[in-house]
Amino acid sequence: MSVRSDKQQTRRRTPRLLLRYLAAGLLLVLASVGSTLWLAQTAEYRFDQQSSDAALARNEQILDELSLWAGRHPTWDGVGPELLELAHDTGRRIALVGGDGELIADSAPTLPRPEESTMTFDPLEEYAEPGTLELRLHRGIVGPFGLSEDQRTALTARAADVRACLGTAVIGSTVWTTGRPVVWATDNAPDCGRTRLDTPLPSEQDALDELRELTNRCLLDASAPPIDRVDLDLSAASARAELAFRIDPPGSEITAGCLLSAQAEQASAVTAPTVQIVLTNLRGNVRGPFDASPGTIARIAIVVVVLLALLAAAAAIILAPTLRSARKLEDAADRFAAGERAGRSGVGATDDLAHVGAAFDRMSAEIAGHETARRRLLGDVAHELRSPLTNIRGWVEAADDGLGMSDAELRSLVLTEAGRMETITRDLQLLALAETGDLAVDLAPVDAAEVVRSVVAAHLVRAAAADVTLAADVEGPLPMRTDAARLGQILSNLVGNALRHTAAGGSVRVGAGATGGTVRFEVTDDGEGIAADDLPFVFDRLWRGDPARTRSGESSGLGLSIVQGLSQALGGSVEVTSEVGVGSRFTVLLPGWPD
Question: Does the keyword Kinase apply (predicted)?
């Protein structure tokens, strides 16, 4: 009943997924087409982009360049190449028309000139400086203050000498649009020729005198006090990057206004006159190919229908295989939840969701392996603990029945078996900590050679009792950074394992050496060896290749698992090579002394 219900739910989910896909696609199509319709109905398609930020920025660039050109030329004759270069750089169509309506220059003379894109351009028009709102002329309007090429060359060389003399005392420098270089220095800096550099040239002084006269004429008309001097403002306090003046005595707003109007009057003689300027896009505002006519709307409606049909076909092509793969994965998950750990998804490598199916299969196989290992571990632990518990119970019952065992003998046997159980539980706890990464290690400078010798010395008595030769094969100090106690435990477990599996008359050797940044420890014996089929399992918990060859009570079956866990906790690894009847070699690789 439950399986049938799950299948019914799967069949109900399939059309819902299809409907959601179609609904999402329909919403996307309608939103796209609706936006297109809205634009078609509301846009004028005049190609006049002066209202956009990008077009405004390009227009400002054009007006700035034309103002610079106008400040250097008294007429607009010869401006054609400048217009062509600006049109190429900005992507705008530029045309200049004189006051009489005659075309002066045009970057696209074959296109019509729309009236709505025509505006008046006066190079001498005042503008408010951003931030201070101070009225100024454009920086390109220099009037008679413009310097000749020879004057510029001479002042430039003089400014270079001043900067070289001042060195680190220079706080800034610039070149005015008039061609004059300006250098600013700290207050306590030496003169270094700055006085000579800042002295106006004769042509500049003449222009300053003329500017003073024009300003005073304006002030006289305004019934304001006249000024005595007009100088170039070259001070560091001003730090102007363009032509600036300083008047003496400082005046009021009326004085500043008269100075500005005098500057415009003075520059008018050498500045190009006011013109009409046309700024459009490169097409000249020709009407675009789109409109909001009924025919266009009908064509868009047809496109909507076609898109919806294609969307439905795409849903059938794309979703059907995907849904089949999804149903396989869902069935596999249901079987897995019911306890079938070895179940597979059934999704092929060429199916949709193949990667998901492969991941599910890997997960299922890994969990099944963990489940098998867990059951085996529980069985092994139960077996290991059952034996000493059975022995203890048997001895206690025998003592109760008075079967000839002294109290001292009973205590000795019970303590031996209790110690065996304690060893098993302690080793299991150590393995659990190592596998979870919670094992505490105390890294410190260690002489690995000394650790090897200590481990060998600790096992000499046991080796002598077993008639096995035990020797350390290490020379000189072997510095490394590790946990000496954990390293000793690793080597002790390997030596103990080698002694258990080496017959009388055999030998066990413990060697160590450094290669690059790695320290290599080897425990080699000529004992009974390990079969090739058993090598992959030697580090498993409670595993014994041949229980008959393990001396009862001498091993918990966890020694090699502990070796692997401790090696990994110290940042290394352990390997084994062996041959039956020849012997075994266990190799531990640990990080050496860091650079």
Answer: yes
Type of residue numbered 354: A
- Rounded Cα distance between 147 and 156, Å, is 12
| HSE of 235, CA atoms in CB hemisphere, 13 A | 8
H or E element, residue 587? strand 583-591
Rounded to 5 degrees, φ, ψ at 40 are -65, -35
Query: In Å, how far are 147, 567, 573, 592, 593 from 518, measured between CA atoms?
Result: 76, 13, 11, 5, 8
Q: Which helix (H) or strand (E) holds 385?
A: helix 354-400
- Asked if 246 contacts 263 with a C-beta cutoff of 8 angstroms, the reply is no
Q: Which two tokens stand for residue 194?
A: 């700055």
Mean pLDDT of the chain: 78
Strand ranges, E, within 373-532: 444-447, 469-473, 479-482, 507-515, 518-525
Digit-coded pLDDT (tens) for 517-547 = 899 999 999 988 888 888 888 887 666 555 5
Q: 582: closest CA among 502, 488, 483, 496?
A: 502
* Separation between Cα atoms, residue 307 and residue 312, nearest integer Å: 9
Dist. CA 483–CA 571, nearest whole Å = 11
**Three-state secondary-structure class, residue 459:** coil
Contact 486, 569 (CB under 8 A): yes
Identity of residue 524: T
Which pTM does this prediction carry? Answer: 0.42
What b/e string do you get for 156-176 counting C-beta neighbours within 10 Å, with b at 16 or more?
Answer: eeebeebeebbeebbeeeeeb
DSSP strand pairing (92-97 vs 103-106): antiparallel
Q: How far apart are CA 93 and CA 106, in angstroms?
A: 8
Looking at residue 564, its pLDDT comes to: 87
Q: Is 398 helix (H, G, I), strand (E, B) or coil?
A: helix
Q: Are 274 and 120 in contact (CB under 8 A)?
A: yes
Hey, what long-range contacts does 382-385 have (CB within 8 A, 24 or more apart)?
A: 384/424, 384/542, 384/556, 384/557, 385/421, 385/424
| Number of other CB atoms surrounding residue 240 within 10 Å | 16
Q: Does residue 433 surpass a pLDDT of 70?
A: no
Task: Write down the pLDDT at residue 288.
Answer: 45
Tracing tokens 């003073």 back to the chain, one arrives at 212
